Amino acid sequence: MKRLDWYIIRKFLGTFFFSIVLILSIAIVFDLTEKLDDFFENQVPLHEIILDYYLPFIPYYMNMFSSLFIFISVIFFTSKLAGNSEIIAMLAAGMSYHRLMVPYAVSATVLFVLGVFLGGWVIPRSSERMLHFTDKYVEHFTTENARNMQLEVQPGTILYIESFQRRSNIGYRCSIEKFEGKTLMERITADRIYYDSLEYWHLNNYTRRQFDGMHESLTRGSRMDITLPIIPDELFITAQQAQQMTTPELRHYMERQRERGSGNVKPFEVEYHKRWASPLGAFIMTLLGVTMSSRKVRGGMGRNLGIGIVLTAAYILFSTISTTFSVNNVMSPFMAAWLPNLVFLGISIPLYVRASR
Q: Which of 12, 18, 155, 173 is least surrounded, with the fewest CB atoms within 10 Å of its CB?
């Protein structure tokens, strides 16, 4: 790494973080203006507003729009280098176009590592705090009751609960059916199901039917203790909560759901793949930005910035649409997360080859 490399790295990362601070500062001002009445009405303490809402606000939106920030930053300072004839001087001094990309690649690697760390560990915890704050003071959206839940808690075992209360860990009118293949072997119904601890559950006023061919045995009782590989919190997990799980937690949850044969895994798989695909987008956005802005053009950087904003908006829109397609079973979660990167990589490579010539 030479002095020129460090100069480009400082320009790249400096412009990136400056643009983040600028945009997020404006976003915080607008958001504060919108929610100020709610804060005063609910008498929210100042330290909770700062620590539980706006501090998590920063990494969440920084990661969400990182592609936009990276692309615009690269175009902004590279167009400035080209406009000042600095890139012409580098190439005239014997530096190849491929060698010019080295400090850009180093900067993109730094942003990739930062994106993986933020998306996998920091943002899930900060999102949890921010959503809890929003639910408590701004807009109540969580529920303590769930109704008509049916899920496969383990292969061949189907649990149905008509209603469940999270606060008391008690469910009403439940059934447990056990299958071998497509044959029903046992069915247990109960007026009430109660969670104890460590996946231990109690059934009250139960009826147990066991089937052996054409024979049936019937048992009734006031209480039965059983083990079910599920805890009450799992009954309330929705697709939106995938963003509140760290990457190891998300991977563990998906493995457990697959073992159960659950079909509600795709939103979690999309989130998992996006946590790797989105940070890798830093390399693609950097490559595309450099190839578009490394030539000195008449009229300055305005044209390049305009094209950059349009392409980044298309990238974000493409990512959103592909995620929707995956949730609706139109494409696989892997393809939904990686297709935008593959498409824009296909655009970037011919442009890079052309620019290097």
A: 155
In whole angstroms, give the CA distance from residue 234 to residue 260: 13
Calculated CA dihedral for residues 73, 287, 314, 272, nearest 10 degrees: -100
Spacing of C-alpha 328 from chain mean position: 17
Backbone angles phi and psi of 339, in degrees to 5: -60, -45
Number of C-beta neighbours around residue 349 at 10 A: 14
Give pTM, 2 decimals. Answer: 0.86
pLDDT at res. 152: 84
Helices 333-356 and 266-293 sit at what angle, rounded to 10 degrees? Answer: 10
Q: Where are the domains of the chain?
A: 3-139+266-356, 156-229
- The Cα-based distances of 310 to 18, 71, 261, 306 in angstroms read 21, 11, 42, 6
Q: At residue 206, what is the residue type?
A: Y
Are the C-beta atoms of 81 and 87 separated by less than 8 Å? yes
Q: For residues 316 and 300, what is the distance between their CA atoms, to the nearest angstrom?
A: 26
Show the tokens assigned to 149: 């839940």
Terminal-to-terminal C-alpha distance of the chain: 24
- Each residue's pLDDT tens digit, 3-45: 999 999 999 999 999 999 998 999 999 999 999 998 999 899 9
Side chain identity at residue 33, one-letter code: T
* Of 274, 276, 273, 271, nearest in space to 239 by CA: 271
Which one-letter amino acid corresponds to residue 129?
R
Q: Which helix (H) or strand (E) holds 200?
A: strand 200-212
Question: What pLDDT is stored for residue 256 in this prediction?
Answer: 83
Cβ distance 280 to 341 under 8 Å?
Answer: yes
Helix pair 266-293, 302-327: axis angle to 10 deg: 160
Please check whether residue 247 is in contact with residue 308, taking contact to mean a CB–CB distance below 8 angstroms.
no
Q: What are phi and psi for residue 151, nearest 5 degrees? A: -155, 155
